[in-house]
Amino acid sequence: xxxxxxxxxxxxxxxxxxxxxxxxxxxxxxxxxxxxxxxxxxxxxxxxxxxxxxxxxxxxxxxxxx
Length: 66
Known about the structure:
Oligomer: single chain
Strand content: under 5%
Helix content: over 70%
Distance between the termini: 10 Å
Shape: elongated
Number of strands: 0
């Protein structure tokens, strides 16, 4: 039986997984480069990559309950 904490963590990870790609995409669309391609400063690109890495780790260690 899931505990209250595991339920909260599951909902939080689900929300994060849903909003993370759209927030990254929105940031790329807003900041344009002269040739039309988005360009992020290196530190921002690395931060976004790290956020996806943490989300992937959460998914990787998750247990599937039936």
